[in-house]
Each structure stands twice: as C-alpha cells, then as structure tokens.
Amino acid sequence: MGEDGPIIGEDGLARPPWAARDPLLREYYDTEWGMPVRDEAGLFERISLEAFQSGLSWATILRKRPAFRNAFTGFQPDEVAAFDERDVERLLGDAGIIRNRRKIDATIRNARATIELRADGGLVEFVWSFGPATTPMPRRVSEVPTTSDESIALAKALRSRGFGFVGPTTMFALMEAIGIIDTHLLGSHRRGTSGIWPG
Question: Percentage helix, strand, coil, to 5, in the chain?
C-alpha cells in the first residue's frame, strides 16, 4: 500500500512505515506500543517520555530511554518528586538525556502531581477514565488522528491537577502508546493485541 499503508517486513509481518525499518522502533512496536500500562511508575514514565519527545522523534527518545531511567531513578514518582535544584543541575549536565530545563522541571512537578492524585484513586485510574467508546480503524497512517475529544479532555484535566507538557496531541500519543485506543493499522499484525479492542 505504499509509504502510507502497512509494509510487509522480511518476516512476513505487516507494520506501519514508522515501525518497518529501524530495528529499535520495530522491537518497540512489536512488543510494547499499544499494550496496556496500568502501573503508576510505568504510566508516569510514559507521560514523562512523551513530554520529552515533544518536538523530537520517538526514535531519539527510545535510544535515550535507558539514560532517562537512570537519570530519573526509574521514574519512581516519590523519588522524582524529591528532586531539588541540585538534581536539576545534574540533569542539565547529563548528555544522555534531553537537556531541556522546562521539560525537566515539568517532570518533577508531574511527579508531585502524581503523588497528589493518589488521594483521588491515583494516576492510572485517572488517565484510563478518559477511554473512548470507540477506537479509530485506520487503513493508512494518514487516517490516524492526532487528537480526540478524549485527549483534549484528558489534557485539560491533567493541567488542572498541576501537570505540564500534557497537551492534547501529546496525550493522544500517550493513549495510543498505553492501549487506551488502538491505532494499529488494519492489516497490521499487532491490531487488536491489547485485548481491549477487537482486531
């Protein structure tokens, strides 16, 4: 179907163009993208990485993911929430991550906001409550939306709880990545594998 539709790999499996060539992206697509994430640290990590990805390629973030995990203590919210100015300076000096002060500051603030959400059921329940009644059924990459009513509402709700770098497009990408919606192309070998949406 060309560069906009599924591409059949040498293994005979169909993937979207973005996951068809780079081995790192292919592994991520085949094993992780679109699968449900329902633990607090895992979801906090995804929100953090989506924020750092803003304006960059996801491949860049994936390559730096081990360094991010090391720099942000495994994305344990309690530990990140305790970061102070010395930690910010340490992070700004860490060439292994994206050294953007606004994004670093937002990650620390988001860790604190994650802790505060525990009193209201927690981050996982909060984010998953914005799941839609239906999911997209794209045949081509150009048919995949970049926002939805739910991602707009989630972004607004998270901002009201103190989160930053959680715009509607970023939250739509999060919802795709953690299985709240299924935007695997029809025909992809991963369509329906989340167990939430039918293939």
Answer: 55, 0, 45
